[in-house]
Prior knowledge:
Blueprint: E1 2-5, H1 6-20, E2 24-28, H2 44-48, E3 53-55, H3 60-72, E4 76-83, H4 91-98, H5 101-104, E5 114-119, H6 134-138, E6 144-146, H7 151-163, E7 168-173, E8 180-183, E9 196-199, E10 204-208, H8 212-224, E11 230-234, E12 237-239, H9 243-253, E13 256-263, H10 268-279, E14 289-293, H11 311-322
Parallel strand pairs: 2-3, 2-4, 4-5, 5-7, 6-7, 10-11, 10-13, 13-14
Antiparallel strand pairs: 1-8, 6-12, 9-11
Helix pairs in contact: 1-7, 3-4, 8-11, 9-10
Amino acid sequence: MSQMSFRWAITNAIDEEMARDADVFVVGEDVAEGGGVFGLTRGLLQKYGELRVRDTPISEEAIVGLGVGAAALGLRPIVEIMFMDFIYLAMDQLANHAAKMRYMSGGQVHIPLVVHTLSGGGFRAGMHHSQSLESLFGHIPGLKVVMPSDAWEAKGLFKASVRDPDPVIFMEPKSLLSSKSEIADEEYLIPLGRAAVKRPGRDATVVAIGAMVGQALEAARELAGAGIAIEVIDARTVMPLDAETILGSVKKTSRLVVAHEAPAPYGFGAEIAALAAERALYDLDAPVLRVAGKFAPIPVGRSENQVLPAARDIVDAVYRVLKGG
């Protein structure tokens, strides 16, 4: 095991997959000589050459369209979109082409495409660079949606995404880029669609995604001081969703809180709440509560903290479900 930053874990995963499979290549704005705006492809041009690490024009529509076409022909493109917010410009390519081609071809054409992009707050970059859109893409049949919570998760999930036969939207929380965790020196993959119990508990279940997993673990440590043991589940993937792990935890604790950065209406938390209502209603001793971002554009600068959830909000929600909601 060795310490590695979230940022380097992504670079390392791309490097290993490019070395393993000559069909893997990277495209995006400034990914070659510049190494990407966040340095996620730094050094890959020098190692693999310009045929496999290529800069593109400033056109998300063209970048993703190139990736879809290359994937349809049997290659495994990794497409970088600098910020999640810019992905709206490629919605036709993603929702109507990448997501539908396997179905429309009767399973004959797969699209092994990874679109990796930076999601959520953490850089105080304002409303056009800080959105969390996981629920939007989780709603589109044919797409897989991944959001890792630390460097270990990032590397294992990224490698699994590259090898997946279907298009994957890989969302990297910006607030975690400089965070570090231990990474196995030997190769490992984390299967898509399998959640992780990050901390066992008996009193309440907290299901979180992305950067909110760390906040949930911080909340768990604070609550432990009061004799309250919450079970923290890292969903890892929005689609496919590991319903069985979540439901198994709810049946054990009888209380459920869901935490995510995106606004609450029609979001990831709403889906988990519906799942619990449909399949674990009589196991619940309190209403399901959601800890989420405010239903507002994310402001610039320090004001960002006024609309994004944090560990304190999770602690408050746990106390509320323990009192019956």
